Amino acid sequence: MGAVSVISLTRTLAGLALGGLVLAGCGSSLDDSGGSGDEGGRADDVKVGLLVPLSGVYAPIGEDIKAGFELYLDEHGGKLGGRQVDVVTADEGEGPQTGVPAAQKLVTKDRVSAVAGVVNSATALGLRDFFDESGKLLLVANAGADDITGARKSEYVWRTSFSNGQVSGALGPTVAEEVEGGVYLIAADYAAGKEMLAGFRKTFEEAGGKVAGEEYTPFGKTQDFQPYLSAIRESGADAVFAFYAGAEAVSFVKQYKQFGLAGKTPLYGTGFLTEGGALAAQGSAADGVKTSLHYSTELDSPRNKEFVAAYEKAEKKPPTVYAVQGYDTAAVLDKALAGADDVSGDALVKALAGVGALDSPRGRWKFDADHNAEQSYYLREVRTSGGTAVNAVVGELD
Which of 397, 279, 390, 337 lies closest to 76 in space, CA to CA? Predict the structure, then answer.
């Protein structure tokens, strides 16, 4: 999930190999030009690829990113950087086996000038070499694997969302301060879960926190959390830090309350634990859960209130962090296109380096030297407001 599904190394390597084959065979089709890439297209037009899941388990995230991206376009008359935009949308599916060829088609056949989106981290990592070697811009609007802007960073890959270790690590010192005893760590057993727990554990222990236990549950297969909740109780932990998202987040939080731990053993997590549809399904079971994330609908700023009102009018539901990431991806591309001499990858990358801080619904943020989002993370607590559970903003995390 956006919180980022990284599947097996075998699939990632398969995506990389496929990327190399397509790149080697495309020849001059990757030639950079100042126009839209279409014959007969106007010189001031630009074609952009939007790669998000439109089917499968991650479709709700893809739909939110797409809605945020389109809202920004609608607010700007269908233009970015003064250019009329033709958005070509492709289905990422559930991983690199579908996402990698879909992205390559956007570049080699549809001839887009840039690609935005990507929910799955294995897809993003599997596309890294393709975009790096083709000199095309990839704006990652969700995938959170640390390596995307870390060990495998590229001049042509930029991220408008988060890195796993940062979103969890932001909460570590606060939990160390609030909890006197040990904290039990639990997450789904896949790459994102391991990066989330590692990021939290690092800052938590550096701040003097003590770990009471650590467990990983089978990813996408765990429906009954009772054995793990029993282990938590038996550990004597004074609090729990969890990373789950989507259906697993709903099940975990509901069963945490049913098992009698809620209210006795404080539950902390990354914001994906209580975000969007998950929180709506959890209802009162999520009351009091504290999380870290770079967005909440409850942020008290004119910019966010304006965004929430516009999104709810368009989509008939509150925005999520994924919608904000899609919206901000369009905003970043708007600035880059406005400052670029043409729409080649090199020109867009040069322009991105100079965009500065973005005035976003999430608060002001900018790209760091590694092309990752340098932003504020917020301490959120689930509270009921007007009969609806919301992620109230308690404070800003260091």
Answer: 337
For residue 292, the cross-strand partners are: 270, 379
Contacts of 102 (CB under 8 A, 6+ apart): 51, 90, 91, 92, 93
| CA pair distance 310, 319, nearest whole angstrom | 10
Nearest to 92 by CA among 68, 57, 67: 57
What is the SS3 assignment for 263?
Answer: coil
Three-state SS at 108: helix
In degrees, rounded to 5, the angle at the alpha carbon of residue 14 between the alpha carbons of residues 9 and 16 is 95
Q: What is the pTM of this model?
A: 0.88
Do 197 and 187 touch, CB atoms closer than 8 A?
Answer: yes
* Separation of alpha carbons 102 and 115, rounded Å: 11
Amino acid letter for position 13: L
DSSP state of 358: B
Integer Cα distance of 268 and 380 in angstroms: 10
> How would you class 234 by CB atoms within 10 Å of its CB: exposed for 0-12, middle for 13-18, buried for 19 or more?
exposed
Q: What is the pLDDT of residues 117-172, one digit of tens each?
A: 999 999 999 999 999 999 999 999 999 999 999 999 999 999 999 999 999 999 99
- 3-class DSSP state of 41: coil
Output the CA–CA distances (angstroms, integers) from residue 242 to 3, 214, 322, in the order listed.
13, 10, 20
Q: Following DSSP, what letter does each residue of 215-234 receive, concatenated?
A: EEEETTT----HHHHHHHHH
> Of all helices (H) and strands (E), which one includes residue 97?
helix 96-108
Helix axis angle for 121-134 and 9-26, nearest 10°, is 30
> What order do you get walking across the sheet with 157-159 strand by strand?
79-80, 83-91, 45-52, 114-117, 137-140, 157-159
